[in-house]
Every structure is written in C-alpha cells, then in structure tokens.
Amino acid sequence: MKLKYYIYVYYDPRDRTPRYVGEGCGNRSHVHLNNADNTELRKAIAEWRALGLEPIIEIEERRYATKAEVWVREKELIAHYGRLIWCEGPLFNITEGGDGLDEETARCNAIRLHSDPKFRDSYEAGMSRREADIGYKKRRAEGISRCQADPGYQERRNEGARKSITLKNATPEHQELVRRGNATPEHLDHLRRQRADPLFQKRRAEGIQRYHERKRREKALALSLAVV
Hints:
Elements: E1 6-11, E2 18-24, H1 28-35, H2 39-50, E3 56-59, H3 67-81, H4 103-114, H5 117-131, H6 134-148, H7 151-170, H8 172-183, H9 185-195, H10 198-227
Antiparallel strand pairs: 1-2, 1-3
C-alpha cells in the first residue's frame, strides 16, 4: 500500500508559533495559502503578508498509508499544542482533528464563540450588513419561493426538525450542555444585551409574527384540503 498521507504545520513567521495542524496528500499543505477554509488562518496569512512575510510550512517526514493512521497523529499534535478556541493553546484548528467537526463539538464551539464579546459584536455587525444588502434579500426571497413551491419541502423540513429536536433533547449530554451554557456569566450577559438591543427586539418580534402567519396559512391549507 502506498504511503501518501502526511502531517503539516503552519507556523507564525514572526516567532515560529504553531498556528495550524493539518493532514493530506499531494499539495494539500499549500492549498491554504490562497484558499484557507479556516477563517482565523486566512486572516493570519493576510496579516503576515501585509508585513511582507509568508507562513512557515513544515511537513513531517513520516508518511501514512490510510486516513485513519494520519488522523491519529493529527489528533496527537493538535492536543499537544492546544486550540485557541478552547483557550488551550495557539492553534486556529476548530476540531480536534480526524474526520472533521462532529455535532457536539460544533454546538460547544458555538456556545464558546457567542460568549466572546469580540466575536459577538463582529457577528452582529455582519448580520446587520447582510440585512442591509438588497442583493442578499433578493436571493433569499427567490430561494424561499422555490422551497415554498415544492410540495414536499415543508413536509420534509418539519419531519427532519422533529426528529433532530427529539434526538438532541433526549440525550443527557445535551441537557447538561444546555444547563451549563445557560448558566455562564457570559451567556447571561449576552441575554441582557439582547433584551436591551432595540434592533434585536424588533427582529425577534418580526420573526414571531412571521411564524404565527405561517402557522395560520398552514392551518388554513390543512382545512381546505380536509374539505376537498
């Protein structure tokens, strides 16, 4: 079996701090230079280039035959250096390595991110810009129209949502995660900020109104079909 997979590490060119650990084959190690999926790594590369620097990329000599083998080493390195998102170390990696972002990790990351005032302000500013973008509103309206024109879309959506919510809410891990997340001072402060934000309250009221209008339409449709 051919040994084609390898581990690579991106280092900050200013002080050689490890910033990203990845795995791949071929030229995967250099793909991030022009098209990094990781937002923080992309920002860092732009910042370094503004200073006339390029990231230091080191590829380990050892090669692996399978994804499973290289994932073991990737997880080891990420755990060794630590991830910035968890305040464990300097890495920009979102996941612990391996086959990607599992659902529980994604949920934990979202809670951690939205508890960060800096991220929250940036997120809310981005949402405001998006809401003010006429092109976005047009694309969104067209997408909604296509979905509403599909007879099976709403049924599939509702069924999927019911199954997902039921499964998540039934797990003790999810209940404990929600309990701990809702009890943090950062989360409580976030809720207070939302309640004091007129724009948020306006969007919330509009969302509730749209929800009830949709429910009324669905009920009227169900009644009309029952009559037929």
